[in-house]
Amino acid sequence: MSNLQKTTRLFAFLALVVILVGCSTPTVVVEPTPDIPRIRTESVQTVVAKLTIEAALNPAATSTEAPVFTATAAPTETPTQAPATATLVPTLTLVPTLQPASGGGNPAPTATRRPGPDQAQLTSQTPIDGANYGPGIAFDANWTFKNVGTSTWTKGIYYIRFAKEGTNLATADKYMLAKDVAPGESYTFIADMISPAQGGRYVSYWQLVNNNGGTFYEFYVVIDVQ
């Protein structure tokens, strides 16, 4: 076999191999690079279209108005009312008013009458309570009592005496009854008194005493020395 024939056969064999290889090699399809911005745009358009369809099917659920936010006002503090200013009311000390010709017996510090058969009522008094005297002036204190009890006041047994309260303005501590006083009758005791040397108000407390030495009426006299 000549060299020409060998060369021809070699080329023919190579051509056959190329044809066979070309038929058996799979075709590789190269996918194009995805366009990311386009995909995003298409996704947004799809969502918008879906929302538009849902809004058309359910119009009540869709509101075109912007949401309104209501601001809740902070609670207003109520100012604390200042406590009312307390008005101070002075306390008044009640002092018995000494009435002219009152007899002096009613406002006595203790009960003017004591229970029992011996009962008295002071019907008149001189001087009147609150009478004015100069210093060292002599005067008579007169008390007239009515026997309103059931017993007779016995002469020389019943008397009046200084109660050892206040100021003894009299020249003696007691004055005896000069006659019997039956129930319903009256009697006037007379006490010799002298006004003190120093000015001021003076109260002298006295007692009406029975035959047992018991007090059954209390009284007093008040003078002002100027």
Describe the structure.
The structure is a single chain. This protein is of the alpha+beta class and 226 residues long. It has a domain at 120-225: Immunoglobulins (Immunoglobulin-like, Sandwich), CATH 2.60.40.10. 19% of the residues lie in helices and 27% in strands. The protein is built from two helices and eight strands; from the N terminus they run ααββββββββ. It has helices at residues 3-24, 36-57, and strands at residues 120-126, 131-133, 138-147, 159-166, 174-176, 186-194, 200-209, 215-225. A five-stranded mixed beta sheet has the order 2-8-7-4-5, with no helix packed on it. A three-stranded antiparallel beta sheet has the order 1-3-6, with no helix packed on it. A hairpin with a 5-residue loop joins β7 and β8. The longest helix is centred in the N-terminal third of the chain and has 22 residues, at 3-24. It is rod-shaped, with a radius of gyration of 68 Å. Mean pLDDT is 73; it is low at 25-30, 60-74 and 90-111.
Keywords:
alpha+beta, 8 strands, rod-shaped
List the helices and strands and how they pair.
Blueprint: H1 3-24, H2 36-57, E1 120-126, E2 131-133, E3 138-147, E4 159-166, E5 174-176, E6 186-194, E7 200-209, E8 215-225
Parallel strand pairs: 2-8
Antiparallel strand pairs: 1-3, 3-6, 4-5, 4-7, 7-8
Summarize the structure.
With 226 residues, the chain is α+β, with helices and mostly antiparallel strands. The chain has helices at residues 3-24, 36-57, and strands spanning 120-126, 131-133, 138-147, 159-166, 174-176, 186-194, 200-209, 215-225.
* N-C termini distance: 189 Å
Number of strands: 8
Find the CATH superfamily of the domain at 120-225.
Immunoglobulins
Instruction: Point out poorly predicted stretches.
Output: 25-30, 60-74, 90-111
- How much of the sequence lies in strands comes to 25-35%
Largest sheet: 5 strands, mixed
Mean pLDDT: 73
Q: Can you identify the CATH class of the domain at 120-225? A: Mainly Beta
Side by side, the strands of the main sheet go 2-8-7-4-5
Secondary-structure element order, N to C: HHEEEEEEEE
Helix % is 10-25%
State the CATH architecture of the domain at 120-225. Sandwich
Q: If you compute it from the alpha carbons, what radius of gyration comes out, rounded to the nearest whole angstrom?
A: 68 Å
Q: Judging from the principal axes of the Cα atoms, what is the shape? A: rod-shaped
Question: Count the helices. How many?
Answer: 2
The SS-based structural class is alpha+beta
The name of the CATH topology of the domain at 120-225 is: Immunoglobulin-like
